[in-house]
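Write out a sequence, fold above all:
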Amino acid sequence: DIFGSCTPAFEVGGDYFDAFKTECGGYTIFIMSDVSGHGFASALVSMQFRTLARAALIDAEKSLSSIVERINDVFSTENENGSMFITALFLRYCHKTKTMEFVNAGHHDPIGITDITYAAGIPLGIQAQMPFPVTSTPFEEGQSLLLYTDGIIEEENEEGEMYGDRIYTLQDNIKLLDAKAQSKLILKTYNDFIKKQNDDVTVL
């Protein structure tokens, strides 16, 4: 059960999420990313990243770390002046072994699995030839994960308090609901809390 929602702060934004099966059908890929900045420039980079990421990840023959390293090399080469970078999560689920692999490129860790320490790499586009280690764990029926961008935790209310860790408590209380209901409740609680949305907000 999968549901995602992206609400840009302006007409267009730099957040992106995706879920698709590999060509062989044995794996499902999940992506959550956030391009630095806002507006049209970020949206354009996000579209380029989507094309690059989908083309690279559709083939499950290579290791997830080597695929992400290649994506970073290409983006870093095209981003020579360092004007943009991307934080991203890459997940690859193996249907045969019921195992989920994670590569974190400078992003917030997923919420839902407590007994795991995620390896982390730097954001994409900063420097080529960098390692992106993989974390893997069994992922079976009854488990759930929430991926999100920082717009949902860094926005503030009238008193200047960030939404922050409230998302952890909320997700723990609603994790038995289906994915769409969870997403809608998270966004409602967030919108009831904040003063004004100033950043793109994405949940998956």
User: Anything to note?
Assistant: The helical segments are 39-57, 64-78, 151-154, 166-174, 179-193. Strands lie at 5-7, 15-21, 27-35, 86-94, 99-105, 120-121, 135-138, 201-203. Residues 53 and 128 are 16 Å apart (CA to CA).
